[in-house]
Amino acid sequence: MNSNVFFLFFTIFCMCSLQSDACQPKMLSAPNKRIIKPPANYYLGIRTASFEIEYTGFTLEQEAAFDMAADIWASIVVSDVPITIKANYIGMPGLGGITLPNMKKNFSSAPEIEKWYVSALANSLAGYDLAPDEMDMDIHIGMDDWYYGLDGACPATKADFVSLCLHEICHGLGFVGVAKVSGSLGSFGEITAADFGISTSFPFLSMEGKSSVFDTYLRNNADQFLCDTIIFPNNSPELKIAMTTNDVYFDGANAQFVDPIKKVRIHAPTSFLLGTSMVHLNEVSYSAADTNTLMTPYYEYGVVTHAPGFITTAVLQDIGWTLNATYTSINQNDIDLTYTYVNNIFRVLSDIDVMEINVYTINGQQVLSNKNTNHIDLSNIEEKVIIVHIKSKTSKWDAVKLVHH
């Protein structure tokens, strides 16, 4: 169906809850607290997207924290079309947040046909708002036990609100699938309005059994893609088994480049939970101590995550987002970069006129910079894995490589 004639929209329930045996947040002692600050380009004031947010039930303090989360994303993704959010504070004990993104398929500039894209991404790809009278996502926030500060000084007795909002917005940007398990059957694109107890600000229409672009990258450890209907027919026992065996990975080229060891493992527990399973990173693989923990399904008190991590942004690249060049996690220009890394010296061998070499941690924090030279000394870098960006005098960020330190 050509979206120039008729648009279809649907929503998907993405829930972030607080992990513990009794559905209460896990208490962390102060020495175990971990803080991930926003990426460098946020502090530099670099913005490549904008957000328009309609608040209901929020205090000014809550709005400021939500605004900060949106502003962090505005420093990472690229879009000429404002991203619109309807944010509701519903005060439901034990609930972190619920994101219901508006989605479209078969719009004229869609990279893949018959695949659902969140409308924020679809608009960015199209270059204009495909449905200007509709919000791109509805986000509902529950619970009252939040730390609303913007400084990352979240105490060990509270959950960080900016981190929660950053997580929920990411679902609305496309870190979301349409998997479902009902009885003995697993499916993509069979979710209906009856599966949710909450209404949306935009039409909830039939998904027609179609998967999202995020879903198309999901595979098992045998390199079988879950959207391959020859192996896993839609609405089948085979697909349910594949979705509930803790054996699902995101196989996008950018994401796999960033995380070749854990292979971007997805949360797919043996008990399927709609809105949690198949739409998050695996909790065990990316625990609170990991810099890529933002998009796991559970929160812990005292943990501050104000940057999405390179795995999450690489996933967004794979589904179609263009990222701010200073945050890109893999070379987009396909430069044939050659280099040496000997005695802690990273040296560019390629015949390019290097203007700047910047070094980032895996979560996007800049730790070192060297200008007008083809090498950089990494002796004082403590991180096990770092990202090296090489900027030439003729184009932006010609190459990005992982260096295992």
Structure commentary:
The chain is α/β, with parallel strands linked by helices and 405 residues long. It folds into 2 domains: 14-319, no CATH class; 339-404, Immunoglobulin-like. Helices cover 15% and strands 23% of the residues. The protein has 7 helices and 23 strands. The strands form 8 sheets. A 6-stranded mixed beta sheet has the order 3-4-8-5-1-15, with helices on one face. Strand 22 (385-392) and strand 23 (399-404) form a beta hairpin. Helix 2 (60-74) crosses helix 4. The radius of gyration is 21 Å and the shape is globular. The model is unreliable at 1-32 and 328-334 (pLDDT under 50).
Brief summary:
With 405 residues, this protein is an alpha/beta fold. It has 2 domains: 14-319, no CATH class; 339-404, Immunoglobulin-like, CATH 2.60.40. The protein contains 7 helices and 23 strands.
SSE topology sketch:
Blueprint: E1 14-18, E2 35-36, H1 40-43, E3 51-56, H2 60-74, E4 83-89, E5 95-101, E6 103-104, E7 117-118, H3 119-126, E8 137-141, E9 146-147, E10 159-160, H4 161-172, E11 179-182, E12 185-188, E13 218-219, H5 237-243, E14 249-250, H6 253-258, E15 298-299, E16 304-305, H7 310-319, E17 339-342, E18 345-348, E19 354-361, E20 366-371, E21 375-377, E22 385-392, E23 399-404
Compute the number of structural domains.
2
In sequence order, what are the helices and strands, one letter per element?
Answer: EEHEHEEEEHEEEHEEEHEHEEHEEEEEEE
Q: Which structural class do you get from the secondary structure elements?
A: alpha/beta
Percentage of β-strand residues: 15-25%
Strand segment count: 23
Q: Assembly state here? A: single chain
Radius of gyration: 21 Å
Question: Roughly how much helix do the residues carry, as a percent range?
Answer: 10-25%
> Which residue ranges are poorly predicted, with pLDDT under 50 across at least 5 consecutive positions?
1-32, 328-334
- From the spread of the alpha carbons, the general shape counts as globular
The count of helical stretches stands at 7
Strand order of the largest sheet: 3-4-8-5-1-15
Arithmetic mean of pLDDT: 83
Distance from N terminus to C terminus (CA atoms, Å) equals 50 Å
